[in-house]
């Protein structure tokens, strides 16, 4: 629930997640992916354990999973 820490994480990782989306040929949905990932980070911050993975690994795992979920959702419609 630390809003300042979240702002710093968003500022740092937001552009990186967007670049990841573009590199994965998901550019038209890059902003949506950033929003979904950062919302998930905010909601699940209490589940992050630095002894298991680095913050970047945790965030990009969320990004990968969100991207897959979005692709599945698009294929259904």
Please name the defining characteristics of this protein:
77 residues, mainly alpha
Can you walk through the features of this model?
The chain has helices spanning 3-23, 30-44, 55-76. It has 3 helices and no strands. The protein is an all-alpha fold and 77 residues long. It is globular and about 35 Å long. Helix 1 (3-23) packs antiparallel against helix 2 and helix 2 (30-44) packs across helix 3 (55-76). It starts with a helix and ends with a helix.
What is the topology?
Elements lengths: L2 H21 L6 H15 L10 H22 L1
Q: What proportion strand?
A: under 5%
Q: How helix-rich are the residues, as a percent range?
A: over 70%
- Unreliable spans: none
Name the helix and strand elements from N-terminus to C-terminus, one letter apiece. Answer: HHH
Instruction: Kindly provide the radius of gyration, computed on alpha-carbon positions and rounded to a whole number of angstroms.
Output: 13 Å
- In one word, what is the shape? globular
Largest sheet: none
Q: Which class best fits the helix and strand makeup?
A: mainly alpha
In whole angstroms, the N-to-C terminal distance is 35 Å
The pLDDT mean sits at: 95
List the total number of helices: 3
Counted beta strands: 0
């Amino acid at each position: 629930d630390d809003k300042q820490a979240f702002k710093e994480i968003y500022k740092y990782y937001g552009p990186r997640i967007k670049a990841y989306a573009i590199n994965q040929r998901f550019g038209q949905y890059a902003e949506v992916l950033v929003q979904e990932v950062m919302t998930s980070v905010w909601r699940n911050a209490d589940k992050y354990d630095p002894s298991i993975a680095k913050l970047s690994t945790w965030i990009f795992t969320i990004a990968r999973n969100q991207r897959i979920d979005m692709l599945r959702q698009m294929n259904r419609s």
